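Observation: inputs received (chain + beta-D-glucopyranose).
Thought: call the complex predictor directly.
Action: predict_structure
Action Input:
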Amino acid sequence: MSRSILAFLVSALLCAAVPAAAQAPMQWQTGRAAAAIEARVERLIRQMTLEEKVGQLHLYGRREGFDYGEIRAGRIGNVMNFVDPAEVAAVQKAARESRLKIPLLIGLDAVHGVSTYFPLPLGQAATFNPALVEEAALWTGREARALGINWTFAPMVDMGRDPRWGRLLEGAGEDVFLSRIMAAARTRGYQAGGAAATVKHFVGYGAGEAGRDYNTAWIPAEQLHDIHLPPFRASIDAGALSVMAAFNSVNGVPATAHREMLTDLLRRNWGFRGLVVSDFGSIPELMAHGIAADEAEAARKALAAGIDIDMMGFVYSKHLAAEVRAGRAPIAQVDEAVRRVLRVKFHARMDEIADIDPRTAESALQSPPALDAARRAARESIILLENDGILPLDPARVRSVAVIGALSRPDQERVWTDPAGVPRKPIEAMDAALARLLGQGVRVAFQPGVSTYCGKEFGDRAAAIEAAAAADVIVAKLGEDCEFMGEGASRTRLTLPGVQDQLLDELIGTGKPVVLVLATGRPLVLSHLKGRVAAIVQTFHAGSEGRAAIAEVLTGAFNPSGKTPMSFPRSVGQIPVYYDHLPTGRPETPGRFRYESIFMDESNLPLYPFGFGLSYTRFGFSDLRIETPVVAAGGALTASVTVANLGGREGQEVAQLYIRQPMARISRPVRQLKGFQKIALKPGESRKVTFTVPATELGYHDAQGRYVVEPGRFEIHVGNSSLAELKGEFQLARPQGGR
Ligand code: BGC
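Observation:
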């Protein structure tokens, strides 16, 4: 039986075993169903007391001594961080015992898994495989829903252009086109799995000055509309039911009180009909931002701006009813917020879906097809940055391997993982996976070297060096762990944390070839390692099946195909170093070195460009054809290229198409990704890849936020990274009757 038929049968069997609630796709209803929901929402609003209304706007987290009576009384309409099925069933039961029986939203940051973990979203983006990313989100949604969790605080779609910012690991990196595609894929996946998606953080959270978390963002209108907003739009167009506001201020106004963004743009211009939730405690933070004198004013300002649910700020629950009674907050604003919350609950059919059975809920976790998806996602997320030929490891030549680094063995990766009590199988250690794949003829030793996963201090340093010196090849698994990555973990030095650089130096000092496997949440500065290590394999914490997948890559059982979702800087001083920057009046010219837009002590180029990643085979790009040399105003560009596998192994390559409008009314980026396709080719095989780019994709936003598509000449570059070399061009025609 073929592997795919087997996987299908297993998944069919599993679906039969999964409780009904786990198979409840969520989406906006249309037509009569939508009209019936609107009528029902209005009826309910007429029946609700002010306290019950405020209850629907209150999101409360699990804690010791949680009072279920508050749910029964209608004072808590939404909860978060409940994961134990018995407790989840109990909170939902309490809601059913309330006067109006309105179901709870039960939220969790199910970001890259619940029990089966997938690579961090940045790693998922590195797959350049939206179908696989959608599948990862689908399993995450299903596992959440199997536990009764019906709302995920994901996807984060903030742009990651500054690697100092610890949170960019939750998004898709620096490119807006890739981010849009991944945002939509993740949204569809979570919701198809049964968890309402929350696209976050609206907006500009990734643009905090100096990459410092929660910091102020100043974003000109052109960049806001061309770069930061499109991934949100993509998620909303894919059906996202909720949006989370950001902590930061944008152009001087805290996002939590940004009426222009939350109401004028999101609701009025984009037509978003779902709910907006604040970030954790961000409403009372309006006082610290200096725009609210007290909690009550913070509550009024957030509500008026368009925040429907107060996440853990406790200011709606404490103050809104009194503010309405005193005439300081309009009841119409409360009703509108309640309307949006109820609308989401009913469109998602949260009341129609049977509650979970706590006794069987966990049987749906870590199913074989979910783990299989996690393995496939992990494989494709791995990026080969350097290889002097040592990889794949050849058991005929390598008799012993020393795996060094505590990170090759934690029981659990720790960014948005580990909701207490969710069962999962132990993750295979990397040395065990390597030993399994290399076979009995190869000895595999392991030494942690450092005492913590983030390498803050040495463990048994001598034992690590001894094991390394005794082996033919050293595999060093180093990187960042939760203390150094994720929320609140901005960094100014992008080296390996703690003593790991020192450890690496000592490993290199043994004279044995070092394969550096990085598990980080961002691109680190690796310039000092180029030429000193034999290979660099970049992973963004690859999840439950990650270490097995890395071992497959190291041994050649899987040919790496991941591509950098961000440019890797040569030094922190280069940041920001994204590829789609504007041209300058004084670009770098070879041979000159001053009075140009350059650094005196560093190249302008990143160490590894966006979209880059090596393979164990070689791909050639040829025969770029512009099938539509003149593109009509409402038409589309069609271009094709031939990709050939010129090496000796089967592999996957990501063909990438970039465009540039060299002359326009305003300066346009030197390149912009507008299409990519991942294809698998056998040795000697070649294939024609065709790209279609609608003319509507060729424009930009002006300073007033208006979208403009300018006719004229466009250049195209096609290849396998943002340095793509094949060139062509086309004309975009003026609209008929246009000037
Ligand atoms: C984060 C959000 C997250 C929330 C709930 C906040 O600190 O910024 O992204 O959803 O906590 O865990």
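Thought: report the result.
Final Answer: The pocket of beta-D-glucopyranose is lined by residues 109, 153, 200, 279-280, 487 (CB under 6 Å). The longest strand covers residues 636-645.
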